[in-house]
Amino acid sequence: MTGLIAIASVVLLGVVAVQIGKISDIFAKIRGEEASQHESNLFNGRLGLFFVVSFLIFCVGSAWYYKNDMLGYGPHVSASAHGEWLDWLFNVTLFFTGIVFVLTHLALFWFAYKYRGETGRKSLFIVHDNKLEVIWTAIPAVVMFGLVISGLWVWNNAMDDIKEGEDYLEIEATGSQFLWDIRYPGKDGALGTKNYKLILPGKNDLGQDWRDAKNLDDFKADEIVLPVGKKIRVRITAKDVLHNFDLPHFRVKMDAIPGLPTYFVFTPKLTTEQYRLQLKKYADQNVPYDAAEPNGPKRWEKFEYELACAELCGKGHFSMRKLVKIVTPQEYEKWAAAQVPYYEQNVKGKEWDTSVTVEPTPAPVVEPTATTAVPAAAAPAEFSAAAVEKAAAGSVLQLNHVTFASASSALTPESSKELDVIVELLKKSTKMTVEIDGHTDNVGDKAKNKKLSEDRAKAVEAYVESKGIAKERMNAMGYGDAKPLVPNTTPENKQKNRRTEFKILTK
Amino acid sequence: MANVQYKDPEEMIAETGWNDHFHEHHHGDKYQSNFFATYIFSTDHKMISKQFLITGMFWALIGAAMSIIFRLQLGFPEADLSWLQPILGKWIVVNEGIGKLDPEFYYALVTMHGTIIVFFVLTAGLSGTFSNLLIPLQLGARDMASGFLNMLSYWFFFLSSVAMFYSLFLNTGPFAGGWTAYPPLSALPQASSGSGAGMTLWTVSLALFVVSVLLGGMNYITTVLNLRTKGMTMWRMPLTIWAFLVTAILGLLSFPVLLSGLFLMLFDRGLGTSFYLSEIFIGGKALDHVGGSPILYQHLFWFLGHPEVYIIILPAMGLVSEVLATHARKPIFGYRAMVYSMLAIGFLSFIVWAHHMFMSGVNPWISNFFVVFTLIIAVPSAVKVFNWIGTLYGGNIRFNSAMLFSIGFVSMFISGGLTGIFLGNSAIDIQMHDTYFVVAHFHIVMGIAAFFGMFAGIYHWYPKMFGTFMNETLGKIHFWGTIFGAYAIFWPMHYLGMAGVPRRYYSFDAFDAFKHFADTNKFITTAAIVVFALQVMFVINFFYSIWKGKKMTTPNPWLSTTLEWTTPIEAGHGNWVGNLPVVHRWAYDYGKDGKDYIPQIEPMGKDESDSDH
Predict the structure, then answer these.
(1) Per CATH, which fold does B42-568+582-594 belong to?
(2) Distance from CA of A253 to the nearest CA of B (A)
(3) Cβ–Cβ < 8 Å for A69, A87
(4) Do residues B582 and B231 touch, judged by C-beta distance below 8 A?
(5) Is there a domain that residue A57 lies in?
(6) What is the pLDDT of residues A419-448, one digit of tens each?
(7) What pTM did the predictor assign?
(8) What is the full DSSP assignment across A298-355?
(9) N or C: which end of chain B has fewer CB within 10 A?
């Protein structure tokens, strides 16, 4: 229906346009071309004056209407030290450009009106005027010189990195689709090293290297909490695509780039509480925060500093919000002391704790299957409930009674016996995660073999899942003929290579 | 209007013109004797210019309609969009009877809107149309240096359009990573569904587009340098031609850099190289790419991207200069200063690209240089503005649609240019980067302004293209509605930018700092719909007037000095029937020695002094 209305209005618009066109042509003809042109000159010249006056009023009026959003005015003052200079520069630029804006607009539309075509008017033959041109080249040049010098001064101060011996707090912000991870250095005051290859979602979100002792006391925070008056260096990184660390109240903005850490140094000047009290003075902040709750908290009472993303990062770009709280140094100390290091909470003593891995060849846990796989030639142990109980994480057991219809991934009915044992085991030890590996012999197309083995592993996974085990605890892999147990020389050997393995990832 | 009657230009050229033996080759053009050769695979620059214009208008409507759809999302986030389902299909997600725009597709619309308007409309549609139409006509040439390459230039643009158009219908959606296509988002299909086939087609389309620009540009430059008629020295060329020349040089030097950047992107996507990718963990996997830098892409992109904004605005400046002088019945003020400022702007446009990247992680120290060069551009730009205003001073101004849009252009260029002074200063850019302040700035200075230049050009040269006039009343409604409406759309965005509202947000509800602009966003969207309707009216006027418009009765309706108005009303391929016109003076003898105008083909009088421009 709305579509019909839309089409109808377009058609109507077309008809109206054509009719106006026809009528105006007829009128022009009746009045005579020159007369109607002069009439039109007067009318449009006046319209120009009307336009410029209403436009300039609109500019001033809108500035008044939005005064609470203008940089450095009213409630929109900078909450950081360098930001004040930035606001100052903005307003200086606004002053000079404002003068140019008003004068040129008045001249443009005034001249257009004043020198409109009329009977008897002759245009002046002015080709150029050197003196005038020198003046109007020199004035902008001088003004620009001033703006450039002050701009560079503000810029270089704002972008200064920490100098040696300065007291500061470094935190790290890592953007990923579509959230921010905030890491604090912990008691030692230093952030530990990280490596993107070590990232394990839920187990090591940032890819911290646990062999680096500096990492062991680092903690992750749900909100950015910072002490007022302290120099903060934010190390800005990204996991997947570009993001941008944007703190609008602090005039802080810097891209987060995978593979290339950036930084921004700033000093928070007002605590959240202080900023709220400033806002309290303004009428538009004294309205209910939530219109549905007229007696609820006022806008200023609910004010929070916010972290946003300001570089397009995908469909969730608009939702990367994090709270920022600026508190007194004492409050900060108290808060920081209460935080539990990520290592203590999520890693220590767990299967993925690599901090104590035997030194010579510490295997970084990237994809457990690839790096910790048992050498292909070693025959896996037979699968049984007892064997699983005994086996350590990383062990591989062979499922002998899980079989499939020929060239298909349909499980045979007799497979269920062994699979039900697996289900029981997974139900009993709730922390155990496993991998199901499918293998084939080398008969036929490699790609098809890989696909078949994958499908077969997935069929096993699906069966186990159907018995109430979370899919997240299993990982189905198909290797095709890439990992033969024995050389594919005899039918017996081929039979041995066609197998399904059960690997314990964690226990 | 005090009007000196000159001899019919045809007679004049027959007497004083220069015989290039055009007649002796063939009468008319035997290669254009059938429908296909005349209207489709034409090598006549006049036909090619119409092809560029109409293709550009097609894209302009699509690009603008896209902006209306995403503006609906921003202005009326609660509204039910299920009525768009017949067009947008699965991209409207209907939940409990309420249709919502899919965020993925919102970003696709934003991306396509930018790509289409910047490249297809304001590069091909503007420079392609008017360079083609005016370079041979205003220089006194029979056609472009190579009519064949000129034809190819259009057809590569057409192919590029086809690839982009096709991508709109992909199951995974068109590319959705912003018109700048920054990697890794654009390089990794797992990062965004539009970065799959959509991005591949986007890249292919732009590669074809670069070919089109290069073929066109080479032609424009060669024609300007070699095919000027007798007496047409460089300093006698109209400012339009200077603008097209500088534009073509910029395009020739900068587009290949984009092409190389796109090739590296294709390698990263398809061949596993790591030019732009490093240390990425995505979709639960750590990728093997190490050592690349996404910032390298940004350098390559903006090395084109910045000159590109001048590729867009310079032709508009040229058209406006010409239209202002003609309808003010006065010489353009400071002709040489205009040329030098265009050359200066063209040169500077190559050394300011990193001002798009102040907050991208480039060394802050390097930004110092880019701030200085960027803000220097304000000087030649200011000179141009003062010269345009100076041209109006003391004129005898004829207000028509072309003139109004030229005046509107100057207003837009002032408004948008001045906000550039804020953004060019890196310190202010810390707060403004990637906010609505930027959106407001570039839409006014190179979006609306360039469109105004284009409209001025269309209204002014429409009789040259079609032999009829567009309707003036509708043209004036179009102008006044659009200038009020365009400011209503973009002016409030400055305040959003000051508050720090980031661009490219699907919704502002998540942030307390950004969500209190709901009324402003409603206002902007409403204004956008009105302005869009006015553009539809323009398109109706355009096509209606081709067949039903007021017929042209004299070859020089604006009493203009330049050569394009000396050809017959229905000029064939070759433009002039007999001799080529010979030029005796510059293009701006308006109001000289008490005469309303003196055409360029008029020999200097005995006592007449050169105009000392």
Answers:
(1) Cytochrome C Oxidase; Chain A (1.20.210)
(2) 6
(3) no
(4) yes
(5) yes
(6) 887 888 788 777 788 888 888 888 777 777
(7) 0.84
(8) BTGGG--EEEEE-S--STTGGG--EEEEEE-HHHHHHHHHHPPPHIIIIITTSTT--T
(9) N
